[in-house]
Design goal:
- The chain contains 21 helices and 12 strands.
- The protein has a domain at about 135-390 and about 465-525: Cytochrome p450 (Orthogonal Bundle), CATH 1.10.630.10.
- It is α+β, with helices and mostly antiparallel strands.
- About 50% of the residues lie in helices and about 10% in strands.
- The strands form 4 sheets. It has a 5-stranded mixed β-sheet, sandwiched between helices. A 3-stranded antiparallel β-sheet has the order 4-12-9. A two-stranded antiparallel ribbon has the order 6-7.
- It is globular.
C-alpha cells in the first residue's frame, strides 16, 4: 500500500481539509514544543546554543559528509575544522541536526567535565549496548548503571599496580617483533601492522594465559601450531568485527540494518576462540585455579575466582582485549610515525633511554621496571604528546538521561548553560580540544614533547583527556603506558637507526573504528 492509498480515504472524506488538519497538527506540535523548551530553560537557567547550525537538509547532508570523511581517513579533522565554520568560532560548542536528530557538539573542557564527572548521572551510553552486544555482550564498555558498576568493581583489582608492573613478560614478544623487523633488512615496512600483532599477542597472554602467537610465523621460522581450534581465524575475525561495530555505532538508531552474514560469522569465530579458554578455566577446581595463579598472573583465572558465569567472563575478556590491544598499538604506531619525522626528538629519546638502561652489549634488562620507566621524563613527554595529538578515542558520544544542561555554550556570548533535553545526543571531541590553540598555544598542531615540561601544562585539567575522565576513566591507563614505554625502550636499544617513508601529507589520514590508527600504516625503516 502506498502513502497515497493510505490517505486517500481522508481525502475523499474531507476533501482538501486534510491538508489543513495536518498543518494545524504540525503547528500545534511545534508551538507546544517551543513552550515546553521555554519552561525548561527558565526552570534550569539555560539558554539556546549561541551556535545553532544547519546543513539545510535536516542533517542528511552532513551525515553523508561524515561518511565520506570517515572513508577518506579525515573524519577527526573534519569535525575539528567545523569549529572554524560555525557562527561564532570563539564559542567551542554548537548544535546541529544529524539524520533529523539534534546533536550538540563540544570541545569545551568545562562541558566535557560535566558530561564525564560532575553531571555523570545525567548522561549514558545511549544505544551502545544494542550496537555492540552481538560481539561484546554485557561488558564494561557496553553497560550503564548497576551493570557497569558491577563490571568495574570486578575488573578494578585486575589492574592493580603490581600486575601492570610485570614488564618482563613482554620480552618474549619483543624478540619475535625484533625478528620481523630484522627480516626487512633495512627496507621500508609498515610497523603498525606488527604493533597490532604484538599487542594482540601480549594481551591474549595476559588475559587468557596463552598468546595467540600472531607474530610467530613461518617467515621468521617461528610457526606456532594451533593449540585451540579456530586460533588462526581469530586474529582476522577480531579485526573485522571491530569495523562492523564502528559502522553500527555510526548508524546510531539504524544499527540493526548492519547485521550481515559475514558479521555473524566473524562474531562466531571470535566467541569460539574465547569460549574454549573460558571453558578450560571453569572446568578447573578452585585449588587448580589457585595453583595456576601461582605460576604467573592470568586475568581469566582471577575472573573465575569472582564469578562462574561463562558469558560474563567471556564478555569482560573481549571488552578488555579490544582496549588493551588497539589503544596501545595505535599509540605506538603514531609515536613511531612522529619520531621518524623528527630525528632530533628521536635522538633525545634515545639519549635518555641509553643513560638509564644501556645500549648495545650494555643493555640492562633487569633495570627496566614499572618504577624505572615512570622516571623517564622525556619518554613520558613523548607518549603524552602522541596521546595529545592522536587520542585513542578521538570523539565520543553520550545521551542525556533526563532534561539537563551543559555549563557553557548558550546565550549570545556562549557563557550561559545550554538546555539539553532528555534523549539528546552530545558529542565531545577530545581530538579537537587537544589541538586547540586556546589550551596548547600557537603551535598546537606541532608535535613537540618539550611542551610537557612547561608550567602551562600543569593547568590543562580537562583539556587533556587521553584516557577519558570521571567515574569511567580508563582502568588500563597504567597498563597501556607501561607496555608502550617498554616497547619504545627495547626497540630503541635494538634498532637505533630510524627513517620515515610516509607521505608528506600532514596531518596523516586516520582510520577511525572503535579506536584510531594510521589509515596507510606507519611506513619506516629500522636497523641496528
Amino acid at each position: 500500500m502506498t502513502i497515497i492509498d493510505s490517505i486517500s480515504p481522508y481525502i475523499k472524506a474531507y476533501g482538501t481539509k486534510w491538508y489543513v488538519i495536518l498543518t494545524g497538527a504540525l503547528v500545534t506540535y511545534v508551538f507546544f514544543n517551543w513552550i515546553n523548551e521555554k519552561l525548561l530553560m527558565k526552570k534550569l537557567g539555560a539558554e539556546y546554543p549561541a551556535n545553532n547550525e544547519t546543513d539545510g537538509y535536516y542533517g542528511f547532508q552532513i551525515a553523508r559528509d561524515l561518511y565520506v570523511a570517515k572513508r577518506n581517513g579525515t573524519i577527526n579533522d573534519f569535525t575539528k575544522d567545523r569549529y572554524a565554520l560555525i557562527t561564532d568560532p570563539t564559542i567551542p560548542t554548537f548544535a546541529f541536526p544529524l539524520l533529523g536528530l539534534k546533536v550538540v557538539v563540544t570541545k569545551d573542557p568545562e562541558n566535557m567535565k560535566a558530561i564525564l564527572a560532575t553531571q555523570f548521572n545525567d548522561f549514558a551510553l545511549g544505544q551502545r549496548h544494542q550496537q555492540f552486544h552481538p560481539v561484546l555482550g554485557d561488558g564494561i564498555f557496553t553497560l550503564d548503571g548497576e551493570g557497569w558498576k558491577q563490571s568495574r568493581s570486578m575488573l578494578r583489582p585486575q589492574f592493580a599496580r603490581e600486575q601492570v608492573g610485570h614488564v618482563q613478560s613482554l620480552e618474549p614478544h619483543i624478540q619475535f617483533l625484533a625478528r620481523h623487523i630484522e627480516s626487512q633488512k633495512g627496507k621500508s615496512f609498515d610497523i603498525q601492522e606488527l604493533f597490532f600483532r604484538f599487542t594482540l599477542d601480549a594481551s591474549t597472554e595476559f588475559l587468557f594465559g596463552e598468546s595467540v602467537g600472531s607474530l610467530q610465523t613461518e617467515e621468521i621460522g617461528a610457526y606456532n601450531p594451533d593449540s585451540f581450534d579456530g586460533k588462526e581465524e581469530f586474529t582476522e575475525a577480531f579485526n573485522v568485527v571491530q569495523v562492523y561495530l564502528a559502522n553500527r555505532a555510526l548508524l546510531q538508531g539504524f544499527y540493526w540494518m548492519y547485521n550481515t552474514a559475514d558479521f555473524r560469522l566473524r562474531t562466531a569465530q571470535v566467541h569460539k576462540f574465547a569460549n574454549q579458554y573460558v571453558k578450560l578455566a571453569l572446568d578447573m577446581s578452585p585449588e587448580e585455579l589457585e595453583k595456576k595463579s601461582r605460576d604467573g598472573y592470568i586475568f581469566l583465572y582471577e575472573l573465575c575466582k569472582q564469578t562462574r558465569n561463562h558469558d560474563a567472563i567471556r564478555d569482560q575478556l573481549l571488552n578488555i582485549l579490544i582496549a588493551g590491544r588497539d589503544t596501545t598499538a595505535g599509540l605506538l604506531s603514531f609515536t613511531y610515525y612522529e619520531l621518524a619525522r623528527n630525528p632530533d626528538i628521536w635522538a633525545k629519546l634515545k639519549a635518555e633511554i641509553y643513560e638509564r638502561f644501556g645500549s648495545g652489549e650494555d643493555v640492562q634488562l633487569e633495570d627496566i621496571t614499572f618504577e624505572s620507566l615512570k622516571k623517564c621524563e622525556y619518554l613520558k613527554a613523548v607518549l603524552n604528546e602522541s596521546l595529545r595529538m592522536y587520542p585513542s578515542v578521538p570523539q565520543n558520544f553520550r545521551v542525556a538521561t533526563r532534561n539537563t544542561t551543559l555549563p557553557r555554550g548558550g546565550g549570545k556570548d556562549g557563557m550561559s548553560p545550554i538546555l539539553i533535553k532528555k534523549g539528546t545526543n552530545v558529542m565531545y571531541s577530545v581530538y579537537a580540544t587537544h589541538r586547540d590553540e586556546t589550551h596548547y598555544g600557537k603551535d598546537a598542531a606541532v608535535y613537540r614533547p618539550e611542551r610537557w615540561f612547561e608550567p602551562s601544562t600543569k593547568k590543562l585539567g580537562w583539556a587533556f583527556l587521553p584516557f577519558n575522565g570521571g567515574p569511567r576513566i580508563c582502568l588500563g591507563q597504567q597498563f597501556a603506558l607501561t607496555e608502550a614505554s617498554y616497547v619504545l625502550v627495547r626497540l630503541a636499544q635494538l634498532f637505533p637507526n630510524l627513517a620515515s617513508f610516509d607521505s608528506d601529507e600532514y596531518p596523516p589520514r586516520k582510520a577511525s573504528h572503535l579506536t584510531v590508527s594510521l589509515q596507510y600504516g606507519t611506513n619506516i625503516s629500522l636497523t641496528a
